[in-house]
Amino acid sequence: MSRSLNKVQLIGNLGKDPELKYTPSGVAVATFSIATSESWKDQEGNQQEKTEWHNIVAWRKLAEICGEYLKKGKKVYLEGKLQTRNYEKDGVKRYVTEIVADQLIMLDGGGGAGRGSSGSSSASEPAPAHSDVPKDDDLPF
Fold first, then answer.
1. pLDDT string in tens for the chain (141-residue length)
2. Phi/psi at 131 (nearest 5 deg)?
3. Which residues are registered as beta bridge partners of 1?
4. Among 60, 81, 131, 139, which has the minimal tally of Cβ within 10 Å of its Cβ?
5. Residue 77 near residue 61, CB atoms below 8 Å
6. Cβ burial 91-100 (10 Å sphere, 16+ → b, else e)
């Protein structure tokens, strides 16, 4: 049996507020994008920068936390896995690759109620997420 790993780690800024929706069965799902940037100097010594945009999906409790605490421009750390899905639009089959988040830490503070959260999900049926949103008084620093 061969081993494999599908893990993504990102630190970036939200491009817009998360969009929180619920499936017909009542499962929360949040979608948003994160920008990551890198900079370097070219051969002439000019500063260059490149920004990549990543589509993020969060499920269940983690989705609700994202919808409540994340805002455009906020810096976050997240972990998840790459997932490609397809759909048909106007008779054309299309593909989209996104990151299904299972861990999230709000690096900008994220609001009065908490600074970090985590959850888990799977590609076919999202597993229940677990949230650990400590109050500011509970933080060890």
1. 679 999 999 999 999 999 999 999 999 999 999 999 999 999 999 999 999 999 999 999 999 999 999 999 999 999 999 999 998 999 999 999 999 999 999 998 644 433 344 443 333 334 434 344 334 444 443
2. -115, 135
3. none
4. 139
5. no
6. eeeeeeebbb
